[in-house]
């Protein structure tokens, strides 16, 4: 009896882990299976197709500039991540390490900006984009996405930078290091896991952004992939090219899954770096 007691919690843990794994992966597996079907097989509930084909993947590139849409999303997401991390790192240093009046109010104001829903600022952003002459151009999406990714990045990096030992900063200042040297040569290597985790979250947010991309772009060549997928249409709801939609969704999702798997170690260490003090 005593030997069987530890087995029950362990069995429950493995069952819960398996259920979570299946629940998380089933939509992706179903999308992959459906993307390999055509015709009436699309409405078959069988998970694995009996005659898999890449016809849907070929069709999305043949019928629309989907390659350009993927490139647009990649350029916007990478630009958002680069600017967010660069500005966020400098701002986090000022907010976390430099004492000045109103620092707490400023930090909560930055956090409050990211809490506004997109639709609340959509009309104002549209006027700004029009005034800058950026309508139907990728810089419009870059500016609009930064409104939400930059405050989030600053807030997260401030939390991690506060945990860095003061002794490191004092030693660098005594050796004559300036503020930029301190940030980019001393703090940046220590914040690498936090930068990777924050950058990946910002990349996912920019990659999946839909409302601004739908509003500020018009031509097919300027659209990003979420808008391109949403605008795949048929004669009616019953005639939608579900195979094409699933194929496009798989192509958009797999890069994110690959990024998470590659940087998993940095993500875990980055998100837990400031959780334990000591």
What's the short version?
The chain is an all-alpha fold and 278 residues long.
Which helices and strands, and how do they pair?
Layout: H1 7-35, H2 55-63, H3 66-97, H4 103-113, H5 118-131, H6 138-161, H7 166-174, H8 179-190, H9 192-208, H10 211-216, H11 225-230, H12 242-262, H13 264-272
Describe the structure.
- The chain has 278 residues and is an all-alpha fold.
- It folds into two domains: 1-53, no CATH class; 64-272, MetI-like (MetI-like fold), CATH 1.10.3720.10.
- The chain is 72% helix and 0% strand.
- It has 13 helices and no strands.
- Helix 3 packs parallel to helix 6.
- It is globular, with a radius of gyration of 23 Å.
What fraction, in percent, of the residue positions are helical? over 70%
The secondary-structure element order is HHHHHHHHHHHHH
CATH class (first level) name of the largest domain? Mainly Alpha
Radius of gyration: 23 Å
Terminal CA distance reads: 40 Å
What gross morphology would you assign? globular
The number of domains is 2
Quick one: biggest sheet?
Answer: none
The structural class is mainly alpha
For the record, the CATH architecture of the largest domain stands as Orthogonal Bundle
Assembly classification: single chain
Keyphrases for this structure?
278 residues; mainly alpha; MetI-like fold; 2 domains; 13 helices; 72% helix; globular
């Amino acid at each position: 009896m005593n030997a069987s007691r530890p087995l029950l919690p362990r069995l429950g843990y493995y069952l819960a882990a398996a259920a979570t794994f299946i629940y998380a992966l089933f939509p992706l597996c179903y999308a992959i299976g459906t993307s390999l079907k055509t015709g009436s097989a699309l409405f078959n509930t069988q998970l694995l197709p009996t005659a898999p084909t890449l016809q849907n993947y070929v069709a999305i590139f043949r019928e629309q500039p989907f390659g350009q849409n993927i490139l647009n999303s990649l350029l916007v997401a990478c630009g958002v991540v680069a600017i967010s991390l660069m500005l966020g790192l400098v701002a986090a240093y000022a907010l976390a390490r430099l004492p000045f009046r109103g620092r707490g109010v400023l930090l909560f104001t930055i956090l409050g900006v990211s809490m506004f829903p997109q639709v609340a600022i959509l009309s104002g952003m549209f006027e700004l984009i029009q005034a800058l002459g950026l309508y139907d151009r990728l810089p419009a999406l870059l500016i609009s996405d930064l409104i939400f990714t930059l405050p989030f990045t600053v807030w997260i990096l401030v939390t991690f930078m506060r945990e860095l030992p003061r002794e490191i900063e004092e030693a660098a200042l005594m050796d004559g290091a300036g503020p930029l040297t301190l940030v980019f040569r001393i703090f940046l290597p220590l914040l690498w896991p936090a930068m990777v985790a924050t950058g990946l979250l910002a990349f996912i947010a920019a990659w999946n952004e839909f409302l601004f991309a739908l509003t500020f772009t018009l031509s097919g060549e300027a659209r990003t992939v979420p808008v391109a997928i949403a605008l795949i249409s048929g004669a009616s709801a019953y005639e939608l090219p579900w195979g094409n939609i699933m194929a496009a969704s798989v192509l958009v999702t797999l890069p994110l899954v690959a990024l998470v798997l590659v940087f998993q170690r940095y993500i875990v260490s980055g998100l837990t770096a400031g959780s334990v003090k000591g």
